[in-house]
Amino acid sequence: MNNATEPSEIRNLLSQITATEIDESVAVFTPLYINYGKHTKIGKNVFINFDCVFLDFGGITIEDNVLIAPKVSLLTEGHPIEPENRHALIPKPIHIKKNAWIGAGATILQGVTIGENAVVASGAVVSKDVPDNTVVGGIPAKIIKTI
Questions:
Q1: Is 79 one of the catalytic residues?
Q2: Which of 38, 55, 58, 68 has a CA-to-CA distance to 91 between 20 and 30 Å?
Q3: If you average pLDDT over residues 38-52, what whole number do you get?
């Protein structure tokens, strides 16, 4: 997929990777790195910019009209803190609701829901749910304002 240049070819290959139909309204700029793919669901009119990383073992749902900027990481996998258990994998889903905008270089961690119409500022690290109609930013991300 990352060697394809035609948008329709990219969507077709992404459909195969995710085992779901990617709508023709979806735009994906490659490279896009996904470790499994079959745990990712992408809605309509979604834009995914260059150089994103999706670790989707825990499940990624991207609803309609979502904008994802370059170098965004969606990381559904984590590890226990205890050293003796650290090699175990803990998957938890990420859900990005309608009309959300994820800024460049943002990282969304496991178990997080990004609310409808929410904006995640560039470079933010989101470790907790983001309410609908809010702007969050920083490390860790905090609410900056409501829309």
A1: yes
A2: 68
A3: 98
Mapping DSSP onto H, E and C, the string for the chain reads CCCCCCHHHHHHHHHHHHCCCCCCCCEECCCEEECCCCCEEECCCCEECCCEEEECCCCEEECCCCEECCCCEEECEECCCCHHHCCCCEECCEEECCCCEECCCCEEECCCEECCCCEECCCCEECCCECCCEEEECCCCEEEEEC
pLDDT of residue 120: 98
Cα(27)–Cα(67) distance, integer angstroms: 10
Question: Could you say which of 39, 79, 87, 95 is catalytic?
Answer: 79
Question: Per-residue pLDDT averaged across 20-42, rounded?
Answer: 97
Report the 10 Å Cβ neighbour count for 52: 21
> 7-146: which CATH number, 1.10.1740.10, 1.10.3720.10, 2.160.10.10, 2.40.110.10?
2.160.10.10
